[in-house]
Amino acid sequence: xxxxxxxxxxxxxxxxxxxxxxxxxxxxxxxxxxxxxxxxxxxxxxxxxxxxxxxxxxxxxxxxxxxxxxxxxxxxxxxxxxxxxxxxxxxxxxxxxxxx
Length: 100
Known about the structure:
This protein is mostly helical.
């Protein structure tokens, strides 16, 4: 088994748990903070799916797995979204709960 695939499959479980928690939070209360957390929690799943697609050589016409390919940019963009949207949503939710 490919090392990249193994790492992606290991990371799949926490990404799905994070997303399921954000979905539950979003269903409980439809606020801006829960929406930002939902978007931020979905981004690591995109990162994991990108790594799985690269490891299994899906979409060979897109040259995934090579340097400066579409997969690299999708991976980077999703990681940046995850690292910004989820904490911002959490912070907004904490501030809202603290004030109200």
